[in-house]
Design a protein that fits this description.
The complex is a heterodimer. Chain A is built from 7 helices and 10 strands. By secondary structure, chain A is an alpha+beta fold. In chain A, strand 8 and strand 9 form a beta hairpin. In chain A, helix 2 packs across helix 3. The chains are: A alpha+beta, B alpha/beta.
């Protein structure tokens, strides 16, 4: 076991625990977007950045393991400002229009923006015209709403085990693709298991004709954990 | 007590934010004791008055007439507030920005392609801007109330705080979409 302090509270967690998990187990909430319990951490969204005393750098809580005597701050004014900035960058990068989005009121990006009090973006918005693929029988991907958290790619690879989804290009141009950049209907590996739509934090992957409130079931995390722990 | 002079402006939006403003219902009576409306689409007045204390702006900036009105309002107002998603982000109004030459493209689509016969683009209306802009990309904005529409309670909270000389805190209160 390792002893450390999170926001001034003494906690004891098993060795090699990530800071995010250690905080969560002690009821300290750190906002995340790309992290999903049960999937391998990616550290892409940078919302879970925390301060560790003795270092001027910020550390992503989801990929930084605890060490004895650590003193961690999860909610300073500096971190709040950084998180607000990150949300603003995400909102500006592609066409995020909550009022006409299938995930309105069920979107993690939207609820984080509200929670953190992001009332506008200081960056000029990009009005992207990325490709929408609705060729699949019921799954649809609207890449304009994608925040590139790669949850869909990881659940497809790690849990369903088919690795249909992947990334093409880099930076802001990155795109979620099926197989070798096929249309979804031509993907021979996709099993139509719907897990990608279950884990998508925004309205990028959804099921046609089904309310997103049904699609984004919270028990997907329980399901993933059960599958992970199966002997 | 001197009443605070308040104006509201309706640019490119659906008037839903003004509806939400009216949705304050009985709280409007409390507000009415403290404010005096001096310019609004809800009133019959044609020119923007001088020395306004507070202006609420609904809608994005989509044409030259709106841009001019907005700049005039900024000059004559102490506190300027973006009201609703169109004013804050561009929202649905700005979806045309994804098209190249969006001002011409949107007119062509509406008046030529969708016309049954003799389609023509009107010339006696204000010229569209190349891109639809949220308010704060054109003038300085003091406060933002996002939402499509913003909840009446949040509008009331912001106004009440400002009338009391306090700064509203949007943490946990803003609501996109």
């Amino acid at each position: 076991m390792v002893n450390l302090k999170i926001d001034g509270i003494e906690v004891e967690v098993p060795k090699d625990t990530m800071i995010l998990k250690a905080a969560k187990d002690n009821r300290i909430d750190i906002p995340t977007l790309c992290n999903l319990e049960g999937l391998i951490s990616y550290g892409g969204c940078r919302l879970c950045l925390v301060e560790i005393s003795g270092s001027s750098k910020l550390f992503p809580a989801c990929t930084t393991p605890v060490s004895p005597g650590m003193e961690i701050t999860t909610n300073s004014n500096k971190l709040k400002e950084y998180r607000k900035m990150t949300i603003q960058l995400l909102l500006s990068e592609r066409t995020h229009i909550c009022s006409v989005c299938v995930a309105n009121d069920h979107c993690e990006l939207q609820s984080l923006a509200n929670q953190l009090g992001v009332d506008h973006t200081i960056f000029e918005r990009n009005w992207t015209k990325e490709e929408i693929d609705s060729t699949h029988d019921f799954l649809v991907i609207d890449r304009n709403r994608c925040i590139l958290c790669t949850r869909c790619i990881r659940v497809c690879d790690e849990i369903e085990g088919v690795h249909t989804l992947d990334l093409r290009l880099r930076g802001k141009d990155a795109q979620i693709i099926m197989d070798m950049d096929n249309q979804w209907i031509n993907s021979c590996s996709c099993t139509s298991c719907r897990k990608c739509s279950n884990v998508c934090p925004v309205g990028a992957i959804y099921i046609e004709g089904e309310p997103v409130s049904h699609t984004k079931k919270k028990d997907i995390v329980e399901f993933i954990k059960t599958r992970r722990n199966r002997k | 007590m001197k009443k605070t002079k308040v104006s509201t402006i309706w640019l490119s939006g659906c008037s839903g934010c003004h509806m939400s403003f009216l949705d304050q219902d009985e709280l409007l009576l409390e507000l009415a004791k403290k404010i005096q409306m001096v310019y609004s689409p809800l009133m019959d007045i044609k020119t923007f008055p001088e020395n306004v204390d507070l202006t609420l702006i609904e809608g994005a900036v989509a044409n030259e007439e709106q841009q001019n009105l907005l700049k005039e309002a900024r000059k004559k107002t102490k506190i300027l507030i973006s009201l609703g998603d169109c004013a804050v982000t561009g929202n649905v109004t700005a979806l045309r920005n994804a098209w190249s030459d969006s001002d011409q493209a949107v007119l062509k689509k509406a008046y030529m392609e969708k016309s049954n016969k003799n389609g023509q683009i009107p010339t006696d209306v204000p010229k569209l801007l190349k891109k639809v802009r949220p308010i704060h990309e054109v003038v300085n904005v003091d406060y933002f109330i996002p939402g499509c529409p913003p909840p009446a309670g949040v509008i009331n909270y912001v106004l009440t705080e400002l009338l009391a000389g306090k700064t509203p805190n949007m943490e946990g209160r803003s609501k996109y979409g």
